[in-house]
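Session log. Operator J.P. requested a structure for one protein chain; no other inputs attached. Running the standard single-chain path with token output.
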Amino acid sequence: MPAESRRQPGLAAPQLSAYSSFCSPPTRTGYSTPSEYVRELIRGDRKRRAKERLDALLLEGLDSGEALPATAAFWDEVTREAVAKLRQKTRE
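Structure written below.
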């Protein structure tokens, strides 16, 4: 197999140069390596998407109909149902 076909995808030299210069020196940007910077971007994006998903679910819940009183008995039942579903799922 030719060496070219075994290469991993990545940044081209001009992109890598610009990317590295953005991330250096660490004292100016707070990142010691370019990969540290990219990991931080990925974590931030995941947090943002999780928050958007939670917000959408909360709005869906608010629009779902009549509210139920959230008593201790209600939460006990929700917990029992969740545990039962989790046990069933882990058996599958």
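Operator note: Residues 11-91 form one domain.
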